[in-house]
Each structure stands twice: as C-alpha cells, then as structure tokens.
C-alpha cells in the first residue's frame, strides 16, 4: 500500500522516501483548495522543489525560471508569468513558517488520518479530470477500502433547509442506490446531505463525506455522531489539513471534489440559491451526468431543482431506477465518465463511444444528428460509433432513432 | 360574415350558394374525425362532388378516376388507390342514407350552432397544420368572436383524476395566463380541464372547450352548467354534428384539435397513462411548444408530467411566466407556429425565423449548432436568421450562446 499514515512523514523517519509526500502534505496547508497556480507548479516541477523554492524565498521570476528549466509544458509556463507567480508566492509565503503544518501533522497522527497523493491506488480517479484544479493531496479518516467504491458512486446533494418531502425522497434514493450497489457521496451538511449519509448507513451501504475543513473537526458539530459513524463504516475526506476551519471558499471547492469523485450528481431538493447548485454546476462542467428531482412547484424548496432541469439540462429523475440510469454499473469496471482512454482495458469504450453513450437515453430514441449535437461530435463520427455499439449490443435502433440498452 | 347558421343550409334555401357548405356539414356526419381519406378526397375534388359520388354509389375505382381527372396531386392520388378508396366508401356508405345528417342539422339550428369551414374568417388557422387530418368542418356554439383569440391561446390540459395540488396549480395557471391576455383552451373534462375553464371564466377571460361529441349534448353531464357558461362567455366546438356521442376514438381526435388550435399545450397534472399525454403527443408532433408542470415524485398523479419532461422533451414549467414564455405574445399578430408564411403581414417572421425563435430559450443561452439541431435547419441558415433577429432586437448573444429576449 502506497498510502502511509502521517506519523511516517514526520522528519527523522526516512525523509528521502517520503519527501514528495511530506511536501504535498505541506502544500495542503499552504495553498487554498483549487489554487490553480499551486496545482500547476507542483505538477510541473514537483512538490518538493516547489516547497524548497518557497522556503528559500525565491521570487516570481526565479520560480518561473525553475519551471522553464524543468521543461514544463510551454503553454502552462506561459500562464505562469513572473507576476502571476509573485502574487501566488505572496499568498503562500505567510503560511510556510506558520506552525500550522506541524500542528496539522501531529493532529493527523492523533486522528489516524491517512494522506493520499496522486498515484496512490486509493486516489480517486475522478479527481484527475479537474486538471490544475485537482487537489494536491487529500486527508482521509476511515476505511481506505471504501475509496475504491467511488468508481461506482453517486453524489446525493441538496439544501440544508430540507422539507419532509425532500428528506423522504433522499431517504428512498440513498437506500435504493445502496441496494443497487452504489456508494453514496455527500457533504455531511444538515438536511439533504445528512439524510443521504444516514440512509446509506441504515442500509449497510458505503458512504463517503467530503468536508470543507479538517477531518479532525467535524462540521457541522451537530453531525458529530453521524460523521463518527461514517468514519467507522465509510470514509471522511478533506483537502484541508487537520485544524483547518471551513470557509465559504472551502465549501465551494469541496463541492468540486464531490462532483469529480462521483459518476453522477443528483440534487434532491434545493431552493433557488442553494449551495448544492454549485455542486451541480461542477458536475455539469466536468461532463458528469446531472440529475434533479422535481417537487411541487408550490414549494420554494424545489425551485433550484426545477431551475436545473429548465436551465442546465439536468435530467428529471423521479425514482431510483432513473437515478441509476445516469451512471450505469456495467461489468464492474465502471469508469469516471471523463477518463479518456484507461490503460490495461482493451475493450473499454473509446472517448467518442463514451460521449455517444452519454448522449443516448434508454427511453427516448434520438436521431443521429441530435446525438451528434449532444455529444459534440460530427454526425459521421456518431454514425460510425453507433454502428460499433450496435454490434456490441450496447445500443439499438428504433423507428424514431437510437436507444441505449439497459446494462445487464 | 361568411359563417352561416345551419338553418340556412337546409335544402330549399338557395342550395347553389351553400352546396359546398352543406356537403361539408354532411361529411362531418359521414366520416369519423381525422379520416385521412375523407380529408384528402374533399380537399382534392371538393366536398360536393365527393358527396355526390357517394350518393351515386360510385365505387373505389370510379372515385379514383374522379380524383385523377380533377388533377389531384399525384402523390396523394397514388395513396388513394382504388382499394383504399373502396374500403373508405364501405365505411362511409352506411351513414349517407341515415337520418343522422338531417337530425344533426335541425338540432344545430335549435341550439344556435354555427358551421365553420376552411376559409371562413373564424376558421382556426392552426387546423391547417393538420394537413389531410384537418377537420372538414366544425360546429360551434357560443361567440364566434372568441375564435379569433385562438391566435393567442394556450391549451391547459390534464387528468380527470386531479389532486388538490393539480387543481391549485391549474387555477393559478389559468388565471395568470388570462391576466396576460391568453385564451384558455381545454377539453371540458372533470379535473384539470374543468378547473382550467372555470378559473378562466372567474377571471373574466376567454375560454374555448373542444368536445368529442355533438355540441348539443354536453359531456360530461356533470359539467352541464360549466359548458353553458362557456357557451355564454366563450365558445364550445366539436367536429362532430349534433346528436353524436363521444367515443374513445373521438376523444383522441378531439385532442388533436386542442393541440392544433393553440399556440402551446401545457399538461398541468397527469398520471402515467392519462389521456392528456395524447394531447401532448399531438402538440409535439405539430411542432407546438409543450410544457409540463412537475409535481411531487411521490404523487402518481404527476408521473405523466415527469414522463413528458424526461422522454418527450417537454419544457418544465413552474409558473405562469414560464408558461407564457412558451408562446410569447408579440405585437398582437401572434401566429400559429406552423404557419408557413402568412399573407398580408409583411413584417411577420418567416418560417425559418419562427423555427429559430422556437429553438431559443429566454434563460439558457444556446450555441448555433444546438439551435440548428433543435430547429432542423442548417447552421448557416440559423446564423443568417440570428443576425436578422438580433437587428430586430428579438435575440441577443451572450458568452455561452444565443438567448431569446422576453417579449415587451
């Protein structure tokens, strides 16, 4: 297992082997989640050299030179101007000397927290679709084995101010999806999120909570018992090191991890300005299927769901079958929809195939020009892919167009 | 006024002048609504020669010869094979000698019923989009002037088995649309339809009911008082002559008239198999905007609406503004969306413009290739039309694509 617990990262214990891992841990305390410049610099020159440059107080021009010398991708390096890098260094520097990093590591050890970095077997593959916005590392409490089930996970999110209707619908959805083998991802907030986790646990299912602050301090505090149970049965994840408080920004960035780590996102109940619409926006931007559960038009608590259906092309989902349809579990090798062409799987669908399959419905037949528009492919490419998929038995042609067959 | 009351059609009163009109009246008693062969023959050779051929017991081959001699459109004539025509004659013949026609005319006179035929100024223009399935004539009780307001009408339909929620939503929709100047079209059934008419009347609005049987016998009988009020304030229309009972087939055909006569159709509450989904299907087939109001997913009474949103691309509408958006009332010269190029209105949008406008949303910006796919036009044609519409101020370009501006 590549993942190590943080006490193995404390200086004095074989620092050479763990320097990159330690540096990434430090970066989670230095850069705010989603800091694109931190992501790019760490990606281009490595976390250790980047941290080392910061400690040596190298300026923006100097850091840019290091990036250029490392042969970093030209386009990215272009964006990494000396000025941009100097602004970033000005943001990061105040945190380098603070005791936060050390506190974070000792707290992490105390709470049996595991650090995961890209390349670790449990690293959620969906994160990679975030590009330079991907987390540099994440902190996990609970069962690392649960993270593998993110490959068959659905995010159930919604407003804190939930109604009885929303909670009922969420309970049914979470329990029903758990029964179908899905892991439930959510944000542990009051209302819909909490119900999603609770119902998953009640059905003995896997559930994963993403927090906007450190995993040592549960937020909201009223969900202390719930989060303790999630740690026991599933996992609690944060991009922030122990000791970090949640902020508005961190909540928004946390939402991108919920969307990126799951196969699909479903909004169960949300008002017109609910924060869960932000998660929906991330899912949509990542090309992940997005579903929304309608409710009474007389209920302001459902206005956000209706908005997603009307304005953001969210699929109207009314029961568990329709939710599962958004993220079909095929032969157990479910992929994040954004995975371009996974290695070691000769028979996995190509990128075009995935896009065509995503553009198809299992119920409403669609003409090839419609599929082409939805998939963003040429009609000719769509026809070629449909031919191949028909041979495979994945799709079928009907009088009114093409249908995706249900996964068997 | 071209429309005449049926007593003017009784034989003996200037038969030459009214023979075509009389023949059409007779055809409404001879052919079932939507009989494509009746529609084609009457269209190609005229109602009087067609009726005359029937009375003379001319056979299928003979009737085909008459059609060919009249220079009827070749393609249509091809379809009108001697065999097909003989089958049709076999259907029609039993009704030619029946007293139904005479009874229908005398009943019509008694109930102050007006016969309308294509070309009459009050003839609903939307009917023409039905092609050979257009009614040969319709019978009207009430105020003929109301029929002109079909140019700014919305059909509000739904299930007989309505819930309190559905009735509430329908009441709000009908009253709100009346306030915005729309005429409310519906089918006078129990439940949603009845509430749509009632709320329109309560708001002193125009409302029109389409019946599946004769306008002399109100159906359902429990809506006798309601239909009497609709006759007083609006109009009641049927394709069937007086004395006809409603049948399953006639309900389905009546639905096509509701969809064709209105600018848009909205389903307010409908179960999975509600007959109102048939009206929705007609609206969709005619290219009319289709809206559906979502409801609780826990209510079987809303399952049909959710089905329309999921499978038939109905727009999710949650308030009166969104409903009105489906059929914007512009400068008072609203058109049936299918009107190809109305005469006498130099500034009215061309067919392509109507299709492009229909393909736009006032909220979700759309790229031109998306609009092209929705409108069934080439991208180049869409770009040209968008340019013209932008000059007019009807559309606007945003970062993510084109928006339709709200009618002012």
Automatic annotation (TrEMBL), chains A, B:
Signal peptide: none annotated. SUPFAM superfamilies: MCP/YpsA-like. It comes from the Bacteria. GO terms for biological process: DNA-mediated transformation. Pfam families: DNA_processg_A, WHD_DprA. Residues 115-325 form the Smf/DprA SLOG domain. InterPro entries: DprA, DprA_WH, DrpA_SLOG, WH-like_DNA-bd_sf. Residues 341-396 form the DprA winged helix domain. Belongs to the DprA/Smf family. This is DNA-protecting protein DprA.
